[in-house]
Automatic annotation (TrEMBL), chain A:
This is Unannotated protein. It comes from freshwater metagenome. Belongs to the complex I subunit 4L family. Coiled coil: none annotated. The keyword Coiled coil does not apply. Signal peptide: none annotated. Gene3D superfamilies: 1.10.287.3510. GO terms for cellular component: NADH dehydrogenase complex.
């Protein structure tokens, strides 16, 4: 507990979060963007479990459960939106969502 | 031993993460995502969260990534993307800069703070028991302390399922909505068109 290995877990989590965040910022395929959001959520999950271990608390693992449920709901809605969008215009990128205006 | 497992899994996780971001083909990105999620499941095991490791494999790699791959195959968007062109000038540079700044800040906090970054009392809501099994402990906590959050979660999932059905229903039961014209034919106009004086 509180060892250097726990800090290494936190660093790995930070790096993974940044990788996912940069992916969301630079990729334009909505499916890949959803995957990058999953990366970010998993990085946060990892740090939750690490903090739970450092504090010797079970809640860190329970919060991860709720995050997973929210991630599943988010993916379901996101994929439904992508399907609805692709039905209108196949091969659309995130930039094409501007046609949603007015 | 724990360190060795951590290093190997961390390498898998990072390689998978970079693969998700840099793959030109979305299917390759999804496969890289599976590698990352498996690596994180191993890390969960390493941290003593056995139930979470199993749920990670079943829910994420078994359900979420497969769902993403299904949609990919359904829509046929598994063609390669042109990553060379940069539609927004400076987008990648700015994104990388923001990412590096954030990473630097967090790593600085972790490195400078060392163990002091974890503040607060230990084991407030319940210590991780060395004798009771992980799944039993989590189940007890979920159905006692967190039972309200658990019920709200059920509502969230129901709403998500209903929303997905509503969103992806083909709306042709009343009158068929005409297909919109192709955006390519409409021309690639900017978001806000400022009319110029005398221009036609």
């Amino acid at each position: 507990m509180g060892s250097n290995l726990s800090l290494a877990y936190l660093m790995l989590s930070a790096i993974l979060f940044v990788i996912g965040g940069v992916g969301v910022l630079i990729r334009r395929n909505p499916l890949v963007m959803i995957m990058c959001v999953e990366l970010m959520l998993n990085a946060v999950n990892l740090s939750f479990v690490t903090f739970g271990k450092m504090l010797n608390d079970i809640s860190g693992q329970i919060i991860v459960f709720f995050v997973m449920v929210v991630a599943a709901a988010e993916v379901v809605i996101g994929l439904a939106l992508i399907v609805a969008m692709a039905r209108r215009r196949p091969g659309a990128t995130a930039d094409d969502l501007r046609t949603l205006r007015g | 031993m724990e360190t060795v497992v951590f290093i190997v899994s961390a390498l898998i996780v990072l390689a998978g993460g970079l693969g998700v971001v840099s793959s030109r083909n979305p299917v390759h990105a999804a496969l890289s995502l599976i590698a990352t999620l498996f690596g994180i499941a191993v890390l969960f095991l390493n941290l003593g969260a056995q139930l979470l490791a199993v749920v990670q494999v079943i829910v994420y790699t078994g359900a979420i990534v497969v769902l993403i791959l299904f949609v990919m195959m359904l829509l046929g968007v598994d063609r390669e993307e042109d990553l060379e062109t940069e539609p927004l000038v400076g987008q990648r540079f700015l994104a990388g800069l923001i990412g590096l700044l954030f990473l630097g800040a967090v790593l600085a906090i972790i490195i400078i703070g060392k163990d002091a970054i974890v503040t607060g009392a230990q084991s407030v809501t319940g210590a991780i028991s060395p004798t009771i099994s992980n799944i039993s402990q989590i189940g007890t906590a979920l159905f006692t302390t967190y039972v309200f959050a658990l019920e709200v979660t059920a509502g969230l999932l129901t709403i998500a399922v209903v929303g997905a059905v509503v969103l992806s229903r083909r709306p042709n039961d009343l009158a068929p909505i005409p297909e919109p014209e192709s955006m390519i034919d409409m021309g690639d106009e900017p978001l806000t068109v400022i009319p110029e004086e005398g221009a036609h």
